[in-house]
Structures are given as structure tokens and as C-alpha cells.
Design brief:
mainly alpha
Length: 149
């Protein structure tokens, strides 16, 4: 009989210890999850910032190149003489050289514009990913205060 009472008391102590340690284990689990998310958030922030800086540099380069293309367009337009109905014959070969250069630069301009758009989209995705990680941290922290999960 004494052995059964010891066994029951021992079982009750194990149950009480398990119930009491549950919140401690949950706090440790949540702290580990938050630390992992914060590390991911830091890496995400560095990626987004790096992308933003590269995007700004590419935008500046694009604007400079856009000015070159505009100058070439003005040069091409300058060969035209409306009073003579177009490009005068004596400058026509120079006009063709300028026109070809302008056309080539327009193709490069389009490639750069497409690249800039793709980079801007990628940077936006990185910022959105960063914001989602930040929200995840907030949700885990609020879950630890009884605010849901």
C-alpha cells in the first residue's frame, strides 16, 4: 500500500513538473524562433539596402545615358532642313552615320531600361520579404504576450 502511494505521489510530481515546465520550454522555443527571425531580418535588410544602392547607381547611369541618346536625337534632327524637304544631299552621309549611331543607342537604351525595371522589381521583392519577416517577428512576440499567434 505504501508503495502505491509513493508511486501515485511520484506520478503526480512528474505531471506537475511537466505542466510547470511547459511555459518555460515555450518561452525558450519562442526566443529561439525570434532570434532566427532576427538574423534572417538582418540579412534581408542588408540585401534590400544593397539592392537599393545598386538600383540608385543604375538609375543615375541610365539618366546620363538617356542624356546622350537625347543629344544624338537632337543631332539627327539637326540634319533635317524643312525648307529643303529633308536632309540636304551634301550632309546625307554624315546624317546616316549619326542616324545609325542613334538607332544603336536606342537599342542599348531599351536594354538598360529593361534591366532597370527588372532590378527595381527585384528590390521591391526584397523589401516586401523584409517586411514579412518583420511582421513574423512581431507576431511571434505578440503570441508570447497572450495576444494570439
Amino acid at each position: 500500500m505504501k508503495g502505491i502511494i509513493v508511486l501515485i505521489v511520484g506520478a503526480l510530481l512528474v505531471i506537475v513538473a511537466a505542466i510547470a515546465s511547459g511555459p518555460v520550454l515555450e518561452r525558450h522555443r519562442r526566443a529561439g524562433e525570434i532570434q532566427t527571425l532576427r538574423t534572417a531580418l538582418d540579412l534581408s535588410r542588408m540585401s534590400a539596402d544593397s539592392c537599393r544602392l545598386a538600383l540608385e547607381w543604375e538609375q543615375e547611369e541610365f539618366l546620363r545615358f538617356n542624356g546622350v541618346v537625347d543629344s544624338l536625337r537632337s543631332e539627327v534632327d539637326g540634319y533635317e532642313d524643312p525648307a529643303r524637304g529633308g536632309v540636304p544631299e551634301e550632309v546625307y552621309s554624315d546624317y546616316l552615320v549619326a542616324f545609325d549611331l542613334y538607332n544603336d543607342s536606342v537599342e542599348v537604351w531599351q536594354d538598360r531600361a529593361d534591366s532597370l525595371q527588372a532590378k527595381e522589381s527585384r528590390c521591391r521583392e526584397l523589401v516586401e520579404s523584409h517586411n514579412q519577416l518583420s511582421d513574423s517577428i512581431r507576431n511571434v512576440q505578440e503570441g508570447g504576450r497572450g495576444g494570439g499567434g
